[in-house]
Specification:
By secondary structure, the chain is an alpha+beta fold. The chain is built from 4 helices and 7 strands. It has one domain (about 25-135): TonB (TolA/TonB C-terminal domain, 2-Layer Sandwich).
């Protein structure tokens, strides 16, 4: 019985050390070796997520062509926030329409600098996703 408990204890501690080790490793982007996707402190838009949504709402101009064609939906953009907090490498992911995508990219390009991501007390490049919602008022 004590051998079983000892074996279970060894397996448990072996598993726990691997989990702890795996959690401490930062995740990197599969498409960029020098870009992280998870870091100690993620990049942040000035004022946080609510401020970013207010910025997008204020700056977005719903394209007339999209209104006429009743096009709405979510545009998902992947961007890299670099060490200086600047947005670069905007990539579109499976968006509902090129018209909406173009407007979402325009707005993201005029965003102010973010606070950069931090890993091991150093600023690093981090890939983040920015969703932009386009919703027509249905009457």
């Amino acid at each position: 019985m004590s051998r079983i408990i000892a074996l279970i204890s060894i397996l448990f501690f072996s598993f726990m050390s691997r989990v702890t080790f795996a959690q401490s490793l930062p995740e990197k982007s599969p498409s960029h070796d020098d870009v992280f996707i998870m870091v100690d402190k993620m990049p942040e838009f000035p004022g946080g997520k609510d401020a970013m949504q207010k910025f997008i709402s204020k700056e977005i101009v719903y394209p007339e062509e999209a209104i006429a064609e009743h096009i709405d939906g979510r545009v998902l953009l992947l961007v890299i926030i670099d060490k200086a907090g600047k947005i670069r490498n905007i990539i579109s992911k499976g968006n509902p329409d090129k018209i909406l995508e173009k407007e979402a990219i325009r707005v993201v390009k005029i965003m102010p600098n973010w606070s950069p991501g931090i890993q091991n007390d150093n600023a690093v490049d981090v890939q983040v996703s920015i969703p932009v919602m386009f919703k027509l008022n249905q009457q």
